[in-house]
Amino acid sequence: MSVADTRFGVRLFATRAIANSDNKSIRITNFVMPNACAVGGFEGNLGPGGATMLWDVPIDNEHHWRWEFIFHRSGALDKPALDAQYRSEKADCDRMWRIKETNYSQDRGSMKTNSYIGLGPCFSVHDVVITQSQGQIHEQADEHLSSSDIAIMRARRILDEAAQAVAEGRDPRGVVRTSEENDFRDLVVITGTLSAGMTKEDYVAALEKSEDLYELAPLPPLSDAPRMLSSA
Q1: Is-contact 170 164, C-beta < 8 A?
Q2: Under DSSP, is residue 94 helix (H, G, I), strand (E, B) or coil?
Q3: What would the pLDDT profile of 78-111 be if each residue is shown by its tens digit?
Q4: CA 195 distance to own-chain centroid
Q5: Strand, coil or helix: what is 29?
Q6: Which of 73, 113, 95, 75 is nearest to 210 (CA)?
Q7: Sequence-separated contacts (24+) of 120-129 with Cβ below 8 Å
């Protein structure tokens, strides 16, 4: 795990060795100031060109709403399957039916076959469980951090820096005030292969300059579109 500061927050790199190869697997995700993440999610099976944006909106000091925006340039998202996955985990008022008191209905038997941690296929549930398990107000003094927590620590420090900037009358990182700045093709989200001899910095720099990483698939020709009848 490693990180790099960006104009919008923090970029996260996770690299892993590939058996019997000099290449590595690389996964790039992002913390987007001040309360969002751009990660690979449900759209990942469609290949490069998509992202899931997780936007956590505070309600009060102990609660928040989490909004998810899922995109792929091909427009080929399986919306019925996605809707069914989320609905299967929801109770009333968009809360999930799994609760702490019943250990979130974890099915340990399924961990041997088709479920990562026994909580079903919806990764939003996994995120909620990990978040709730830390308590309503997380006590950082009790933490035992490791090298894999590097992104969490950098995100916290950037938030501290942002608060200081605002106190001094300056814009914090991530504020966009012009149309030129409102171009987020450099918000790279991808899982790919890092060739031997290529650095992760060179890899992401090439993707940042790509004109088609998030370019929408072309619309069908007008001749293929349904025709509207006119009474004129």
Answers
A1: no
A2: helix
A3: 999 989 999 999 998 888 999 999 999 999 988 8
A4: 24
A5: strand
A6: 73
A7: 120/88, 120/89, 121/85, 122/85, 122/86, 122/88, 122/89, 123/41, 124/66, 124/68, 124/86, 124/89, 125/89, 125/96, 125/98, 127/54, 127/66, 128/66, 128/96, 129/98, 129/104
Rounded CA-CA distance 105/124 in Å is: 15
In degrees to the nearest 10, what's the CA dihedral of 219, 223, 229, 232? 100
Q: In the chain, which stretches have pLDDT less than 70?
A: 219-232
Look-up: residue for tokens 């919306």?
79
pLDDT of 26 reads 94
Note the residue count of the chain: 232
**What are the structure tokens assigned to 75, written together?**
């427009």
pTM: 0.85
Q: How far apart are CA 207 and CA 131, in angstroms?
A: 32
**Nearest partner of 34 among 51, 15, 58, 50, judged by Cα:** 58
